[in-house]
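Technical annex, item 7. During the second reporting period the consortium partners agreed on a shared format for inverse folding records so that results from different sites could be compared directly. Each record opens with the tokenized structure and is followed by the designed sequence. A conforming record, contributed by the partner at site C, is shown below for reference.
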């Protein structure tokens, strides 16, 4: 056994109750207010894709997405059962996020000890980064679950490469990479360990070969999606800033109340856990955490190698498959027998920080995803039989996700300008950050709403503040052909090249 499941361990029934309680806690944190936030752009893509037939959806994925199709196939079925709305579509990720908790216990117990397993389960249940992606209709929560299952199967296969353990590992690895290409950074180091430890075992070689075949099979799709340039924005952000985000976001998520204080406090507690591991841990207590740490470092090195071959898409969410082995290493220090009381205190501190950060996000709109539902409600439904209306969104060039909430919305044609009697201008206020890619309000580019827009025939009807948006409605007493030239001439705080002119028919 790699873990220490014997001495000073709590009764199995108490451990099971503890893990169950932590799973319930994790479920509460993930399912509470699941539909409170609207879809942001990336989630809008998911909601858009799953509305099509399976064949049409699979044909669109290479053109619109940068990830493999497995998550979308599961989400397509899921949405037919639980609905296309926010809570229904996100519940898939929430359920996957809850399921990670007992798997995390199994990984910690197998690699280190039962005590470490409970600690890993606690850290998983309360981690605000995992909670954030458990409440998002994207593939990341499912990626964490599948890489966690692969890690658990790896732990068993490393100790004894039985057909059952190897088969489970191959399936979990294949599914993880079919969910997200960065699943490879989690499973490749595991394959290397198995090869080193059991290179004479034919079953191990066959298993590694099958996982390699799964990876190779995904290469043509990955190259096709890479050539679309959908993820090119990542490489435009300074690599140093992206790297600096990883550890804080692994610990306290994308945002938190009093973020700087919380960040340094969480980092100090995690560092203290590592000090306990190396200063007070016995050799057998360090073995499992060091193995987990080697998986993290190897996976991170592989992520950097991707950059070297021209695939620079390294941001924290893409390497979420490395979160669990990193947590196992930290939990190994918190579970050291000689410093048990200190370890418990540090664990409580890390979990408390996570819960405070998660609650802070749940109650603060500036930390949440922009909710375009409120914009749609402010604009109101299109009156039956009325002329089309125009919508100008400043500094935001896409139909999504507003088109999910306003039926009949499309990009205005320069060749055939719409004839309208109403123009709605939308500007945004947001706490923008230099690198904000996780869909919160800081992902929006701030813009300034003018006092008026001088377009012949139109006058201001009303002006409203809706959450972080400002909306102005201009109306005309007669139908007006609204040309891009007329709109462009009226703009003083922006330019039409940066804006999106839409029409709702």
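Designed sequence (site C submission):
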């Amino acid at each position: 056994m790699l873990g220490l499941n014997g001495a000073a361990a709590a009764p199995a029934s108490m451990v099971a109750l503890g893990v169950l309680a932590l799973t319930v806690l994790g479920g509460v944190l993930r399912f509470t207010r699941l539909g409170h936030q609207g879809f942001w752009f990336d989630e809008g893509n998911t909601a858009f894709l799953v509305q099509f037939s399976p064949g049409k959806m699979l044909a669109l994925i290479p053109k619109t997405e940068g990830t493999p199709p497995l998550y979308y196939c599961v989400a397509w079925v899921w949405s037919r059962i639980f609905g296309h709305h926010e809570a229904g579509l996100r519940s898939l990720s929430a359920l996957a996020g809850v399921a990670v908790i007992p798997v995390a216990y199994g990984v910690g117990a197998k690699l280190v000890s039962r005590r470490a397993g409970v600690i890993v389960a606690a850290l998983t249940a309360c981690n605000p980064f995992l909670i954030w992606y458990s409440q998002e209709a994207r593939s990341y929560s499912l990626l964490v679950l599948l890489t966690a299952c692969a890690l658990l199967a790896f732990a068993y296969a490393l100790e004894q490469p039985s057909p059952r353990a190897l088969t489970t590992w191959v399936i979990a690895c294949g599914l993880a990479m079919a969910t997200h290409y960065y699943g490879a950074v989690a499973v490749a180091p595991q394959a290397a360990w198995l090869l080193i430890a059991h290179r004479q075992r034919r079953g191990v070689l066959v298993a590694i070969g099958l996982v390699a075949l799964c990876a190779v099979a995904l290469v043509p799709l990955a190259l096709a999606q890479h050539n679309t340039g959908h993820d090119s924005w990542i490489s435009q952000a300074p690599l140093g800033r992206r790297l600096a985000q990883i550890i804080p976001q692994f610990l306290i998520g994308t945002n938190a109340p009093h973020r700087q204080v919380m960040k340094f406090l969480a980092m100090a507690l995690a560092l203290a856990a590592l000090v306990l591991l190396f200063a007070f841990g016995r050799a057998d207590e360090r073995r499992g955490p060091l193995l987990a740490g080697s998986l993290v470092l190897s996976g991170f090195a592989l992520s950097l190698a991707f950059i070297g071959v021209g695939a620079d898409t390294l941001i924290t969410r893409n390497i979420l498959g490395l979160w669990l082995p990193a947590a196992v290493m930290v939990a190994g220090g918190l579970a050291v027998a000689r410093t048990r009381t200190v370890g418990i205190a540090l664990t409580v501190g890390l979990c408390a920080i996570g819960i405070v950060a998660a609650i802070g996000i749940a109650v603060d709109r500036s930390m949440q995803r922009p909710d375009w539902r409120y914009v749609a409600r402010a604009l109101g439904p299109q009156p039956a039989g009325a002329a089309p209306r125009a919508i100008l969104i400043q500094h935001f060039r896409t139909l999504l996700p507003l088109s999910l909430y306003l039926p009949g919305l499309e990009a205005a044609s320069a060749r055939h300008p719409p004839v309208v009697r109403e123009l709605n201008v939308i500007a945004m206020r947001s706490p923008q950050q230099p690198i904000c890619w996780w869909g919160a309000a800081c992902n929006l580019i701030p813009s300034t709403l003018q006092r008026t827009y001088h377009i012949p025939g139109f006058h201001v009807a009303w002006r409203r503040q809706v959450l972080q948006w400002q909306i102005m409605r201009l109306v005309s007493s007669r139908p007006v052909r609204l040309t891009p030239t007329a709109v462009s001439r009226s703009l003083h705080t922006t330019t039409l090249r940066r804006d999106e002119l839409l029409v709702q028919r």
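Residues 4-8 have pLDDT under 50 and may be disordered. Residues 12-367 form one domain. All partners now use this format for quarterly exchanges.
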